Amino acid sequence: MSGNWDVIVIGAGSAGLPLAIRAAERGARVLQLEADYRVGGTLYWSSGQIAAAGTRLQQQHGIDDSPDEHYRDAQRIAHGRIDPTVLRLTVDNAAGTIDWLMDLGFKPAPGTPVAGEAHEAYSTRRYLWGANKGISILETLKPAHDRLVQAGRIDLRLQHRFTTLVTDARGAVTGVRATTPNGEVEFAGKNVVLASGGYAANPTLWKALTPRVPLCSHANPYSRGDGLQAARQLGAVVDGSEKFLCTFAGFLEKADDPRSGNFLALSPGARKVWEIFVNSAGRRFMQEDHPSIDYRERSLLQQKGMQMFAILDHGILQNAASMTLDAPADYKARFGRHPCFVKAKTLSELAKKLDLPAANLRRTVADYNRAVEAGVDRKWGKQFLIRRIEQGPFYGIRAQGITVLSPAGLKVDRELRVIGGNGRPIPNLYAAGEVLGFGRTSGDAFVGGLSLTPALAFGKILGERLLSW
Ligand SMILES: Cc1cc2nc3c(=O)[nH]c(=O)nc-3n(C[C@H](O)[C@H](O)[C@H](O)COP(=O)(O)OP(=O)(O)OC[C@H]3O[C@@H](n4cnc5c(N)ncnc54)[C@H](O)[C@@H]3O)c2cc1C
To answer: In the predicted model, what is the mean pLDDT of the chain?
Structure first.
């Protein structure tokens, strides 16, 4: 076993980077293990949207806001389902974290902060991001981290995959084991922080922890839940899997790989919704162009297998904007070639290819066409009724709720100590970031910034306080 580190940080992503920086700046001996060949973690994937009340940026814009208001607003959007201790810690430390990022050179995108974007709106303008999404945050943190690594104040070991927590006879954590390209290694340390991210890229663990939700994930491939599994082996409490909400909506690039989820561009804010959505019974189930993303996500969540089918015809394919992020020509070329992009001469044939009851689909389309003619969709209230679905060939996209975040995670106290099965903290073991579970930091709703902001803030405060707690 090598070293006797003050802090062993598992992961160098959104939580691990600020943690290592702040701990090293305070003179702690920091060892950081990262499974990937680079630092950054989910920041390469993330939209990088963060939120805080009481920032200098808000003050410059004359926005009056407070952590208490942020707390109330977040619980309002999340229907009161965010862990109160964790939310309190988030709102009380978010502004200091964003001010610190700005001291390090972070530049908020023009026009930010806003009240809402992509998720349900806050009551005031506290939501922001950088021009280059998550990478803007990485580009802010990495120079400071690099300097400390080069100065020998952070011992960063890339391609070191942590596997196990080492404990003493009384169950206190005293070190970790990891696998490396050169075999297994063991390190001793006074404190271990799990900042190893979520488990949305581990289909087996997903099934074990979140069995009712089919996985179609778009996540960092290193989000394998290693930290969760190791802490569970010590009896740590893992909960929150029921607080799942899907992202609306996506499809599997590869039918046999649940980690190959990709987004469809369906937001009525970004694109007019010409098509209709039906469920596996061939029936509409929502207002397709409803302005609330929360409404759209929850409508899809309730459908069998979290599945839906976008139905359109030749005229719509020619006139409407692309439903994928591909160039329009590539998007059209997918139909008939990709298992999720189906093309048929008739509606009945389309139903057969999509495994939908043909009579129901024909009836649904006929009802919709009558609504278009009447200019009013009495049943579902769709607003954009520009064109009937009537001209073959007909097209369908097999879509489903997509996962970017894992809901279940480690229970922690207000000092971010991991709670064991006896209800008491496991000595010397801490956690920060998505390993706490999205359900704990954001409830069962997408509250703007409430995954990335706590990851950054909790990493920062652990780096600042770990040795004094
Ligand atoms: C597409 C997408 C968009 C998102 N957009 C937003 C957003 O706008 N706002 C928001 O609040 N949230 C957003 N999120 C979520 C948010 O970005 C993440 O929850 C957050 O970045 C997680 O931070 P983390 O430090 O816990 O994990 P990560 O940033 O993933 O860091 C974990 C690190 O640990 C490493 N690691 C894993 N296992 C091991 C191991 N065994 N040993 C050593 N190292 C290991 C990983 O390689 C990784 O570098 C988004 C997520 C996705 C996927």
So the answer is: 96
Maximum CA pair distance of the chain? 76
Instruction: Answer whether 0.90 is exceeded by the pTM.
Output: yes
The domain defined by 2-239+405-465 folds into: FAD/NAD(P)-binding domain (3.50.50)
User: Is the Cβ atom of 322 under 6 angstroms away from ligand 1?
Assistant: no
Q: pLDDT band at residue 469, thresholds of 50, 70 and 90?
A: low
Mutate to test the pocket of ligand 1, among 452, 458, 460 (most ligand atoms within 8 A of CB): 452
Q: Where are the domains of the chain?
A: 2-239+405-465, 247-402
Residue nearest to atom 35 of ligand 1 (CA): 11
DSSP string, 278-341: E-TTS-B-S-TT-S-HHHHHHHHHTSGGGEEEEEEEHHHHHHSPPSSSS-HHHHHHHTTTSTTE
Write down the pLDDT at residue 467.
Answer: 75
Is the CB–ligand 1 distance for residue 192 below 6 Å? Answer: no
- 459 alpha carbon to ligand 1 midpoint, in Å? 12
Q: Is 42 in the pocket of ligand 1 (CB under 6 A)?
A: yes
Residue 425's identity, in one-letter code, is P
- Asked if 252 and 338 touch (Cβ cutoff 8 Å), the reply is no
- Spacing, Cα 363 to ligand 1 middle (Å): 44
127 lines ligand 1 (CB under 6 A): no
Topology of domain 247-402 in CATH is Flavocytochrome C3; Chain A, domain 1 (3.90.700)
- Please write the tens of the pLDDT for every residue from 121-138: 999 999 999 999 999 999
Ligand 1 close to Cβ of residue 405 (< 6 A): yes
From the CA of 450, give the closest atom in ligand 1. 11
Instruction: Give per-residue pLDDT as tens, 48-58.
Output: 999 999 999 99
Cα 264 to chain centroid distance, Å, stands at 16
Indicate whether 468 pLDDT > 90.
no
Cβ neighbours, 10 Å, residue 379: 11
